[in-house]
Amino acid sequence: YGYTMMYRETGLERYLNQAKAIADFLIHHPNFPEDKIPYWDFDAPDIPNAKRDASAAAIMASALIELGGFVDKKLRNEYLSVAEQQLITLSSPAYRAEIGTNANFLLKHSVGNMPSKSEVDVPLTYADYYYLEALVRYKKFVLGQ
């Protein structure tokens, strides 16, 4: 996310290259789940039973949508495909809370700091923020609205 933003603001190619390298690492990691919602840590010892992190998926989806605007068509399609799957999964009942539940947060199942056992499998403000940002970016950049 940060390197894409730095590229947008500076135009320096090294930031774009780093953003693409990070995206490639995440998308092609052997422990990246099929539904595209990352584990709290790709090296968690209890995969596939490790906690998932909706906040990480929301941040990643938003970043991939923006990054897609700076790369060639092949990479753009790859990034958007992953982001779309993340948004679909985050919008499903497994992750999207019903209105009036979940302390009125949108997303369930985020992880703040697993090693300290702080904010584990809870809603997080920044998860909702990046989820909404990703939806707005998708609507603007992909749907052209």
From TrEMBL:
Family per similarity comment: Belongs to the glycosyl hydrolase 88 family.
Name used for this protein in its record: Glucuronyl hydrolase
Origin: domain of life: Bacteria
Gene Ontology MF terms in the entry: chondroitin hydrolase activity
Organismal lineage: Bacteria, Pseudomonadati, Bacteroidota, Bacteroidia, Bacteroidales
One annotated GO biological process: polysaccharide catabolic process
InterPro entries named in the record: 6-hairpin_glycosidase_sf, 6hp_glycosidase-like_sf, UG_Glycosaminoglycan_Hydrolase
Hydrolase found in the keyword field: yes
Keywords assigned by UniProt, alphabetized: Hydrolase
UniProt keyword Hydrolase, yes or no: yes
PANTHER family documented for this protein: HYDROLASE, PUTATIVE (AFU_ORTHOLOGUE AFUA_7G05090)-RELATED
